[in-house]
Amino acid sequence: MKKELQVYDNILQLVGDTPLIQLQKMTEDISGTFYAKVEAFNPGHSAKDRVAHFILSQAEEKGLLQPGDTIVETTSGNTGFSIAMVSAVKGYKCILAVSDKSSKDKIDMLRAMGAEVHVCPANVAADDPRSYYEVAKRIHLETPGSIYINQYFNELNIDAHYHSTGPEIWKQTEGKITHLVACSGTGGTISGTARYLKEMNPEIKILGIDAYGSVLKKYHETRQFDENEIYSYKIEGLGKNLIPTATDFDAIDEFVKVTDESAAQMARTIAKEEGLFVGYTSGAAMQGVKQYALQGQFTKDSKVVVLFPDHGSRYMAKIYNDQWMEDQGFELHENLKAIPNSQK
Ligand code: PMP
């Protein structure tokens, strides 16, 4: 059947409705059927398009935003890109405070989208005046007519996924999903999606992914904030050194932690085996699937949705760069090298 020519009013109409793609080779050795929810299909190439579009639309509906106003945010990159994209379309000024852990590619992209970017040190306490939280807060206070998205502490971050990612997955799996595997940073994605799915079927298991060096898993298990869990790590966007209120810990059944090295190797494997060029945390999510499988979480009847948050192009200087991998001391099996030695 011939498709009718379809025209969009602007790029924002393409946010959401990302595909669910069955994984083939990577999950051959695991019981169950596995589907990737590939968020790189959003126009800004990550799940954060949903959050930026939802929060700014809500602010407009409440009359909190006028054209020319300023949007301020702290971000590891993706949220910033999405806010910059929405701001460009809607005519807002976008000011972003980002961590110096963010890749240079990401920072350059934000600037290309018209954002003003302030690069702040990652390894200082959240309440240090140099931290990206404090810098964003100060800019917000000093800028009349600005709104601060504050994604880690904004309940609307959860709602964005409750109203989009959750219903999409439910519909795409015809209600047959048994497990959701998702990374947790702000927690918005996993919490909003989980709330919707659990409302539809409380039996669905919500399996979170955390990073070594982050407090989330320990907090989930003990409801104690344990400073000893905190140390620096490489994966951007996963885990946290504070407890975000955008995480609904009660909606999550379990967490596993993954290493920087295994997540990076796994991202490369996804590209080579499934043809899906995805980001560092997609590798983390897939590594989490493997660890959950070893724990015996899945059976042959399991229908598991794994959320892949963003696109691989944002990590060319990091996980997809052989030298960077070597510099981290990460093992690169011959079949995972960008250019195998035999072809050099
Ligand atoms: N992956 C990437 C690449 C991200 O930027 C983020 C956001 N920090 C996440 C995963 C985690 O998503 P959320 O913030 O919704 O928990």
From TrEMBL:
Belongs to the cysteine synthase/cystathionine beta-synthase family. CDD domains: CBS_like. Residues 11-310 form the Tryptophan synthase beta chain-like PALP domain. Its cofactor is pyridoxal 5'-phosphate. InterPro entries: Cys_Synth/Cystath_Beta-Synth, P-phosphate_BS, TrpB-like_PALP, TrpB-like_PALP_sf. Keywords: Pyridoxal phosphate. Pfam families: PALP. It comes from the Bacteria. This is Putative cystathionine beta-synthase. One of its GO terms (biological process) is cysteine biosynthetic process from serine. One of its GO terms (molecular function) is transferase activity, transferring alkyl or aryl (other than methyl) groups. PANTHER family: CYSTATHIONINE BETA-SYNTHASE.
